[in-house]
Amino acid sequence: MKQYDYIFTGAGLSALMTVYKMAQSGQFKDKTILLLDENAKKTNDRTWCFWTKKKGIWKNIISKTWDSALFANQDFERDLDLNPYQYHMVKGLDFYTQVFDVISKEKNIHFLNQKVTDIEESETIIMVQTETESFSCSKLFNSIYTKSKMDNQTDYPVLQQHFIGWFVKSEQAVFNPEQATFMDFSVAQKGNTRFMYVLPTATTEALLEYTLFSHTLLTKEEYETEIENYIQKLGISHYEIVEKEHGSIPMTCYPFWKQNTKNVINIGSAGGWTKASTGYTFKNSDKKSSELVAFLQRETNFTKFHKRNKFWFYDLLLLDILDRKNELGSSIFSSMFKKGNPTLIFKFLDEETSLFEDIQVILKCPKGPFIQALFRAIFKFKN
To answer: Which domain holds residue 201?
Structure first.
């Protein structure tokens, strides 16, 4: 059985970002690091998007950038000038390639394409079992999300951001490659929060994702029927499906950090790194991984890593509303984007606004549901 200083169980976005930054820092060359994942990370299995003022360390793998976005519902459309932000798309395979090009050159970092089956922690050591081998370590970073833990608790709402996406090539030039469709709520809501998300890369090419913020997944046919209907509505009669993708991202304010121990930390979706109110993962993981790498250089107790902030509470209120009345999503987001300042909204979603700016964004939302959610939260945490 081989001993490591650090083991990452799961090599998803959060783990790879963290190890990549550890390697770039040059401060961990004396630590042996193992990444374990059942996925070999050699296919274009997902697409990430994020907005930023500066492209940063991922600038070389950004495949498309938009300066403008569209928000729409059944009653109105609004063009959103994102300046000083830009909206970026990163393809999964490009991200994996950049990360593995760096970490593969580090003699102390190893990746094994194996499925983790068990983790056991004692006072002095952590044991990790895969289907074929056993390993041990001093510190463990876990990004394997355990759905059953969420299903077995009732204190915090758990929704899913779930979707199927098609990369299509159309014979008709119907897309505006200079503008992403951030949310289009003009699709039938059917008692849920449902929207189309469109990322055009050319006048004849785009990624179209049928997306829901709700509790339960649909059948594959339901997602794809809605994509087909939307394609027809755009005036496309002939098209080719180049690639497909699908996903389901947990949206919850569950305090994952309370499960951290001195030597085991939960990261990624398993650690609450996903932005609970939107399901956005790339930007949050980028921030959190940088914070974690800096933390590792000054601290050893993982229970000290997390700090809860006011945005956690804002997200909790929204999820409480969508948990009880899932059909209100369209009206809430529409109220925010109809007259709100797009730059301020994106800054708010980035968790970088002052209290005064928070109030400006929140006052755009329907007040009744949020006041009710506020009283429910106060009563719950008081008791």
So the answer is: 158-251
Residue 82 lies inside a defined structural domain of this protein: no
Q: What is the DSSP string of 6-48?
A: EEEES-SHHHHHHHHHHHHHT--TTS-EEEE-SS-S-S---EE
In a domain, 74, yes or no: no
Q: Of 208, 235, 251, at which residue does a domain stop?
A: 251
- Tell me the pTM: 0.93
Domain count of the fold of the chain = 3
User: What are the tokens at 204?
Assistant: 């004849």
Q: What is the pLDDT of residue 383?
A: 46
pLDDT in tens, 324-380: 999 999 999 999 999 899 999 999 999 999 999 999 999 999 999 999 988 888 777
In this structure, the strands spanning 158-170 and 239-252 are antiparallel
List Cβ neighbours of 383 (8 Å cut-off, separation of 6 or more): none
Shared domain check, 168 and 103: no
Please measure the distance between the N-terminal and C-terminal CA atoms of the chain and give it in whole angstroms.
Answer: 48
